[in-house]
Write a structure and sequence with these properties.
The protein is α/β, with parallel strands linked by helices. It has two domains: 3-90, no CATH class; 135-451, SGNH hydrolase (Rossmann fold), CATH 3.40.50. The protein contains 18 helices and nine strands. It has a five-stranded parallel sheet. The chain is elongated and about 80 Å long. The relative contact order is 0.12.
């Protein structure tokens, strides 16, 4: 058992106690000041509404916690305050013992029933540990469910810090990147969370740095983004730090996720396609930032901290956490349903624009089609390759004369030997590589990219 697993329940319990005491302390002082307790409906409602409004309102501006954690903190504060000020809620020791016993028995009974009746619970992506602060929770998540963070970071990377109005995704970006001393060449990698990797399973770009110590592989991937973000990032890199080779990694969900709303584009698609792709706005347009920022916070808020800690040992907590995730996505930034085939012209325009700009600068350009777990694990018989998005994207890139790499045959051969190449941090269909998958992808790229004679880094 890890140190975190031993300490986390106690830390969660301490958080609950501290919040209760933080509410009880001013309640006790108030009772002593006025010489009596009070129990009207209006004072009770105010004791709940005021802390909830203040804490959630402050959190909406700071994004320090998720909205569910902010609500839990305020409700625990209100509970402590009401116990100190409401005459009917002041318990004696016997009542406390009975209440704690009843709650414990009820929780054990529900947990037993859930384990007996329901299927295995969904996995919650927290392989990097459970963190209370929202930015740390996003950074530690092995499989990011906080989709808006990537779009905030794209805005910050393209337009400058603060352009996205939220908590950015961690990573290497053109405005903050510093070249590694001693590296003779630079390779820029663009993509989503499959390229970004995780603290647990690593990154194939880091593996490449080990295999090629004289080459710096710059990982500028951002989770939950698509080729429109990749192109905007490429333009920014070219304006600030032109690389010696560009590899754009395409994932099978890229077509579906094209043209989603971005906070810095007035909550419209980041690019327009009038003639050729270009940024919708030369400067960031945040639109109605207050309302949209709160929707962003709701959409990207993980379940309450106490619940996330309990996921490690409770099936009930896991189902409840999944319910909170669904609530976040339902009441947050609900992304539009899209038809991936309708986005083929946009993907073609993006790849053509990247190809032409890089050719003009004399920089080699490669598209790498990332292996898709669902395709590799599908029964080989009765599989219509044309229905797979990876095949569609590969053909689009090839039709434009772009060099295309595809490690799927190597991954399929390794999996047929029983090798595990994908993480299960987000469940048995998690599409992200594990450490072995990153190592295999690095080995593949190390062998394939050597054909490109890179110039000495500028």
């Amino acid at each position: 058992m890890t140190q975190f697993a031993r300490d986390a329940p106690w830390q969660a319990a301490l958080l609950v106690v501290v919040c209760l005491l933080a509410g009880a302390a001013p309640g006790t002082l108030l009772v002593r000041a006025i010489g009596r307790r009070f129990a009207s409906v209006w004072t009770t409602a105010a004791a709940i509404a005021v802390p909830l409004t203040v804490v959630v309102g402050v959190d909406a501006r700071t994004a320090l916690l998720g909205v569910w954690d902010a609500a839990c903190v305020s409700l625990l504060f209100s509970t402590g305050f009401l116990f100190a000020t409401h005459p009917r809620l002041v318990p004696d020791r016997g009542d406390v013992a009975i209440a704690l016993g009843s709650i414990s028995f009820s929780l054990l009974f529900v947990e037993a029933a859930v384990r007996l009746v329901l299927p295995p619970p969904p996995a919650f992506p927290a392989a990097g540990g459970v963190h209370l602060r929202l930015s740390e929770a996003i950074a530690a998540s092995a499989v990011s469910m906080w989709e808006g963070g990537g779009k905030v970071t794209t805005c910050d990377a393209v337009y400058g810090p603060g352009a996205g109005g939220g908590v950015p995704w961690p990573g290497q970006f053109p405005r903050t990147w510093q070249p590694r001393p001693g590296a003779r060449k630079r390779v820029l990698h663009l993509g989503d969370s499959m390229v970004f990797g995780s603290a647990v399973d690593g990154q194939f770009t880091a593996n490449l740095d080990t295999l090629e110590p004289d080459v710096e592989h710059v990982n500028s991937a951002i989770g939950a983004t698509a080729p429109d973000s990749y192109l905007a990032l490429l333009w920014t890199w070219l304006s600030l730090h032109p690389p010696d080779l560009v590899v754009m990694h395409l994932t099978s969900n890229d077509l579906q996720e094209l043209n989603q709303p971005y906070p810095c584009a007035d909550w419209q698609p980041l690019l327009t396609y009038d003639g050729e792709p270009r940024l919708r706005f030369a400067e960031p347009h945040l639109g109605n930032l207050g309302r949209q920022r709160f929707r962003w916070l709701v959409h990207n808020s993980p379940p309450p901290y106490v619940l996330r800690v309990a996921v490690g040992f409770s099936h009930t907590a896991a189902f409840a956490a999944a319910a909170f995730v669904q609530l976040s996505h339902r009441f947050g930034l609900a992304l539009p349903e899209t038809d991936e085939d309708a986005h083929r012209p946009q993907l073609e325009a993006i790849l053509r624009a990247a190809r032409d700009e890089l050719r003009r600068r004399g920089i080699p350009f490669v598209v790498n089609i990332l292996p898709w777990r669902l395709q590799l694990e599908a029964p080989r018989k009765n599989v219509d390759e044309e229905r797979w998005t990876a095949t569609k994207m590969k053909r689009i890139a090839q039709s434009l004369g772009i060099d295309v790499l595809d490690a799927s045959p190597e991954f399929e051969a390794a999996m047929s030997r029983g090798e595990q190449l994908f993480t299960n941090a987000g469940g048995p269909t998690d599409i992200h590589f594990d450490a072995a998958g990153h190592a295999l992808m690095a080995s593949f790229l190390h062998r394939e990219l050597v054909r490109y004679e890179l110039p000495v880094a500028r």
